[in-house]
Amino acid sequence: VMSDLRTAQHEFGKSHNTVAEAWNALGLVRVHMQRDAQAAKMCHEEALRIYASNEEHVQTAITLNDLGYCHEQLGEHSQALERYEEALKILSNLKLDESHPRMISTLRAVCRVRRE
């Protein structure tokens, strides 16, 4: 994944959506396979910066969910809830129905964190 990230940065520049995709992929590897939520958080924050600056709303919401999960794993529940609620707001503004898989996932995350 690191070589994909370097290649994308070289080929497209550091603010291209392809680079953000690579950052997100690296973040997912870090949190789910390497169990390093702190490193994953940094990866997702970089992807979020790129997607937000490029006004990629769906990808921004997805990345906010990933970032929220990292905060959850780190025991940072208030930050996790903030990220999930930001994602929910974006998805709602995009007029996604509550039965849409992205909405379901985000609503479940909000409920899960509120219970903790």
Notes on the protein architecture:
By secondary structure, this protein is mostly helical. The chain has six helices and no strands. The chain is globular, with a radius of gyration of 14 Å. The mean pLDDT is 94.
Helices and strands, with pairings:
Blueprint: H1 2-12, H2 17-33, H3 37-53, H4 57-73, H5 77-93, H6 101-115
Helix pairs in contact: 1-2, 2-3, 3-4, 4-5, 4-6, 5-6
User: Helix-strand pattern, N to C?
Assistant: HHHHHH
Number of strands: 0
Mean pLDDT: 94
Describe the biggest sheet?
none
Q: Evaluate the radius of gyration.
A: 14 Å
- Mass-distribution shape: globular
* First and last CA, distance: 33 Å
Beta-strand percentage range: under 5%
Q: What's the short version?
A:
This protein has 116 residues and is mainly α. The protein is built from six helices and no strands. It is globular and about 40 Å long.
Q: How would you describe this structure in keywords?
A:
116 residues, mainly alpha, 0% strand
